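Supplementary Note 3. Input sequence used for the single-chain structure prediction.
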Amino acid sequence: MSMSMTMGFSAPMKFKANAVMNYNEQHHHALDASYVKRAAELSDLSAGFTSPHPNFGCVIAKNSKVFGEGYLYAQGTKPAEVQAVEAAGEYCRGATAYVNMEPEDCNNDNTSLSAFIKAGITRVVIGIRNPLQHLRGNAIQTLRSEGLQVDVLGEDIRGVSMEDALKSCLVVNAPLLYRSAFQLPFSVLKYAMTLDGKIATSSGHSLWISNEKSRSRVFELRGRSDVVIVGGNTLRKDNPRLTPRNGGAHLPTRIVMSQTLDLPEVANLWDVRDVPTIVVTHRGARRSFQKFLASKGVEVVEFDVFNPKKVAEYLYDRGYLSVLWECGGTLSASAILSGVIHKVHAFVAPKIIGGRNAPSPVGELGMVEMTQALELSDVSYEQIESDVLISGYVQPIPDLTQSTIDPTLSLKIIGGRNKP
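The predicted structure, written as discrete structure tokens, is reproduced below.
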């Protein structure tokens, strides 16, 4: 057999071997991605209950089969990793553990890591590193020193199949990522408006713009938040309760921002039997009313410099992770201009009410050209019966892998009551 014939025979075999290897690698990575995404989905089940800690989920699999799952139910409960190990039992030996975030042991007893090591887990796939600088990489180093293979998405494992899983890990712990990056709690602005951009009629009537299912989604957003903020105008006009109103949901602290304390003595928010209310105001405002609020059990906090940024910094210092702003146009514009809003949820109803003086969801931002418009990224659209929920980020989620989530669509906000 000639050399040319030999080479002609061996080259296709080599190509076939490489093709098989690439296929197996891609299949393996696709499984890794699906299990990490599943861990992120599990961790999201406890949103609102684990604060100030991250949302953790864990999946244990071997030979393409899942043997154990778990997620952190609430602060102080059994770690997700321990739950998954206990569920998998003897199948842990030689298996891979998938977690949406680098394990964290708040009590410094390495409970989660010990569970993996003692159970015989041989590989751990991590969605993202811990966003807290003093914890980042510690668990990874410990596991590797014990002989476990540790792979991190975007670092040790790359590829198109990883992008969706990585995004899931970022989104589910966005509050902690923003808090770590900006030293501010993750702030979401929520509003409901008509097709012509109004949140109430010219007389101020606003019940109801959105449909019942959309309002249920708002209750869900509240249940995922540590704090819900309204302004004095919203309190006077709507007399809200600001509770999730569905059994078992997390009850966020309610905050009223009012510079003058021109507030009514009778209000649902002054009932603090089930959930606390904090009123934040300018120093010295209506001392007599402050005493009245204190008699009701409402906490009053005074500020020398009173604006959304100072309030957000205060909430950061108190350890809150996430804030839902359910305010009117004046306060929402001020919050946006202060740079504290990170995400927007806009419920749009197929209604038109018109009116030059009817309020809009965002007040004056000082923009005179469309090139100045605030552009949202990573926008999503969801139909809720007759309404449409439009969501997007004002500031992209901080990504510890240094890769950027490419926005598929964009949306702009220019604000202003008198904008046509």
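The CA atoms of residues 241 and 269 lie 6 Å apart. The radius of gyration is 25 Å.
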